[in-house]
Write a structure and sequence with these properties.
69% helix, 2 domains, mainly alpha, single chain, 9 helices
């Protein structure tokens, strides 16, 4: 059990590192298969400095060559992905097919979380293929067709109506597509829980940022980060939450 959990954690760390690199590469339109380099001095990073978590710690969060600061994003995303992998492993066990479905969904959601948080963008080239795959995987894993369609419609219409009413000032078109993706992953009624949880998380974060003077009224917050975080929570514990409230 402990050995398997460690393997899942290590796999999560490695994939978290890949998601960091993928997000940077897609934003700056770099080749997918490239050597990692320092964004400040442009020198190629040595293989020994590419160990998830450990390299950041040993290097003190700085580039070996130019001593420029390495963003905490890399450490946090690697650690978070590793922990998410362990949580899903604990939930399902290694031989459950639902484990691999939810891990795949989680990787997509973590990537979208990182990209929207850092660049305030939800990429069509990621979310649209992911939507098609989510539909196929959800149907193949036993989610009813009607529950799937209702989930997609609720997720898309929830943000689509806000987009129309506000003329795009509340949410962007990317949020509509992300809502559809979340609906395809969760289906009905879990998509409702994810939407509610996203706004609870978003509200709490907004209050903290306002109180701490890090944001002011009118500043934009990336809705996709709250929705993807909520979706991962619902994938992990959504059914338990619904049972608690008798739903």
């Amino acid at each position: 059990m402990l050995y398997s959990a460690f393997i899942f954690f290590l796999t999560g760390l490695i994939l978290g590192s890949f998601l960091n690199s993928l997000a940077y590469g897609l934003y700056y339109k770099l080749p997918l298969w490239r050597r990692s380099f320092c964004p400040k001095c442009k020198k190629i990073i040595k293989i020994k400095d590419l160990m998830p978590l450990l390299s950041f710690i040993f290097l003190g969060g700085k580039c070996r060559f130019c001593k420029g600061k390495i963003s905490w994003q890399y450490f946090v995303v690697e650690l978070a992905t590793g922990l998410v992998f362990i949580l899903f492993f604990v939930k399902y066990g290694a031989l459950n097919l639902f484990l691999w479905r939810d891990l795949f969904f989680a990787l997509i959601l973590i990537f979208l979380f990182v990209f929207d948080l850092k660049y305030y963008l939800i990429l069509d080239k990621i979310v649209l293929p992911a939507l098609i795959l989510a539909i196929i995987i959800s149907l193949a894993s036993g989610l009813g067709f009607l529950n799937l369609i209702i989930g997609i419609l609720i997720g898309a219409l929830f943000f689509g109506l806000q987009h129309i009413i506000s003329k795009g000032s509340w949410v962007g078109e990317g949020d509509i597509k992300l809502g559809a993706l979340i609906g395809a992953m969760l289906g009905w009624p879990l998509v409702i829980l994810a939407l509610a949880l996203a706004y609870i998380i978003g509200g709490a974060v907004a209050v903290f940022l306002l109180v701490s003077a890090r944001k002011k009224f009118g500043d934009i917050l990336p809705m996709g980060t709250f929705l993807t975080a909520a979706a991962i929570i619902v994938l992990l514990w959504g059914e338990d939450i619904l049972r608690i409230f008798g739903m």
